[in-house]
Amino acid sequence: MLAFITVFYNVLEGVVSAWFGFEDESLALFGFGLDSFVEVVSGAGIWHMVRRQRDNPDQAPDQFERGALRITGGGFYLLAAGLLGTAVYDAFQHHAPATTFWGIVVSLVSILSMWLLIQQKVKVGKELGSQAILADAACTRVCLYLSVILLVSSAGYYLTGIGWLDSAGALGIAWFSFKEGREAFDKASGIACSCS
């Protein structure tokens, strides 16, 4: 159920963030929304993995899980490259978003939601002795960090009007996306990762 909630929340967050990021010309918010869509693929893979491990805990990852991890890794790499290129271009062009108000709103809602999900995933993971659920909680913690990056860059721009803060936020999201992409490919190859 927690994996399903995570997938549903990321779809909603992705649509809202990408829409307002595009409308307000906020690269950090737009990138945050795209990251949410990549997280949907990851969440679907985790949902499948938790169900598979519940039925057969000794079974190795199946083709669906490895495929989902590779798609997730590729998506994160593409997102990181796109955000890096666009952030550098925006910084040199002195581009500034129209507003970052919605970035503040989305990040605050996301911080609260991710914190609640982490608490529940850790609780359930410990009760069931499930390393898969605890690993999912660690990955949700990365989403919390991304929300904090979005909040800092959005609030910073909103309060100061310094345009490059939006690009700096996008670079922070790109860095975490690159790390998540690398971890997804490592997991697909069978290397244990901590998502931290």
Describe the structure.
The chain is mostly helical and 196 residues long. Helices cover 84% and strands 0% of the residues. α1 packs antiparallel against α2, α2 packs parallel to α6 and α5 packs antiparallel against α6. The mean pLDDT is 86.
Q: What key phrases describe this protein's structure?
A:
single chain
Rg of Cα set? 17 Å
Tally of DSSP helical segments: 6
* SSE string: HHHHHH
**Backbone structural class:** mainly alpha
Shape type: elongated
* Number of beta strands: 0
Low-confidence stretches: none
Q: Mean pLDDT, nearest integer?
A: 86
Share of β-strand residues: under 5%
For the terminal residues, how far apart are their CA atoms? 23 Å
Biggest sheet statistics: none
* Helical coverage, percent range: over 70%
Short summary:
This protein is mostly helical. The chain has helices spanning 2-23, 27-55, 63-92, 101-128, 131-160, 164-188. The relative contact order is 0.17.
Secondary structure: elements and pairs:
Elements: H1 2-23, H2 27-55, H3 63-92, H4 101-128, H5 131-160, H6 164-188
